[in-house]
Each structure stands twice: as structure tokens, then as C-alpha cells.
Amino acid sequence: MTKNELEELIELQNDSEFLKKSYNDLRKRYVNQYIAIKDKDVIVHHKDINIVLKKLKEKRLNPANILIEFLHPKDMVLIL
How many domains does the chain have? Predict the structure, then answer.
């Protein structure tokens, strides 16, 4: 693993921790939307994942290196 790859993994972990801590607040703001988080900040949000991906590419960001999450309504239950 290269130094750059390790740094990207650490950034994703930090963004994941931010999402976990801020999930309820983020869900209030972005319910039923996909959010893209980078550096502990929501940089793109939309209800359509294709638009989120397009906006990330316009910003010259690789979606594979960005935390993307769909924020479901509070009362929604998923059965997997």
C-alpha cells in the first residue's frame, strides 16, 4: 500500500466517523438524498445518485475516494 492510498483510507475513516456522529442532523437536512462527504463536509447532495456522481466528476473528484451515503427517513425499516 502506498502512502497516498493510506492517506485516502484515513480520510475515508475520518469522514465515516463524522457521518456516524452527525447522522441524525444530516438526515434532517438531507432526508431521502444521497450525500457525498469529503473532509468532514457534505460537498454534494441530491436524490439521484447519477447526479451526485456527475457533480463529483465535475469537481474532478473520484467517487471511489468519496464517502457516499443515502439518508433514509427516520421511521424507515430495511429488511435485508
Answer: 1
